[in-house]
Amino acid sequence: MKYKQLGNSGLVVSELTFGCMLFGEGEYWGMKYTINQEKANDLVAESIEKGINIFDTADMYNEGVSEEILGKALGNRRKDVLISTKASFRAGNQAFNAGIGYKHIIEQVTSSLVRLNTDYIDVFLLHNDDPITPIDETLKAIEHIQQRGMVRYAGISNFSAWKSATMLQRQKDLNYSPFMASQMHYSLLNREVEAEFVPMSLHHGMGMMVWSPLSSGFLTGKYTREDPEPEDARLNTFDLGLFDRDWAYDVVDKVKEIAQKYDTTPIAVSIAWLLSKKVVSTVLVGISKAEQFAANLAGAELELSAEDIAVLDEITAPKLRYPNTFAGLQDGVLKAAKVW
Question: Of these residues, 3, 28, 33, 61, which one is catalytic?
């Protein structure tokens, strides 16, 4: 396992993060929870043995059950690892039981600490924006939980680039601790973050924790034109519509071709491509089977050639939209002079 600095911080994280979203039993919005306590205990132990040092969850995963299971699975190994959790989505029936207001953030972090059976959270992320809370109110809450030692580092997830940049600037204005991490969707099948979010993150020193690096399993190669809905596949019941399937089949064909060159899997190639990107600090992987463990670990070990990265970059290049289209019209002499 290799390790990377999380953004411009002193925290070092494994290139793979164990995603605990499926901890629990039952179903929620088409998402099937498949990992009970006993299985979680084994997976967490094996993850630590393999060098994974960070586990990610959220207050809304199975209504907090994911956090409870993770806390129990870690037990007395809590201080040997890092925990990342999130809050924003609805956590109660009252109107104020959601969002990123001061009340909700403080209450949810307090509840997460109890469920996780820990005194502190290593990385706390705002899981989503809300339509009403003033920026300064949210940032005051984040600074409060950091100053009290409830949270070590903070960041955002699923935010727009403009809102993230504005919040980071306000943190500087107020002499608050800046966000060090983001958790965003990024994969060969969806590179939308590259237009604005990635350059903003690099400018501000914010490391990315990538969620759904395999586009809900589509990049494993198990979805085909002949069998678009394989048995028990996640996209059959839980599809966020983050990519175009007809085009994605062609991408997967190329990924499979490259995987054969390295005697590995499409999973490994897809993860290795992400880890080649400067903004990416760690990639979240959901593991429920032994073969998935091996394939994901292989992705952290695989070094793709510059040529193969370029091929994947080219065939998955997102369509530029204004004003990014004007980047191609920037002065050629100035571009050639750029060294940093």
Answer: 61
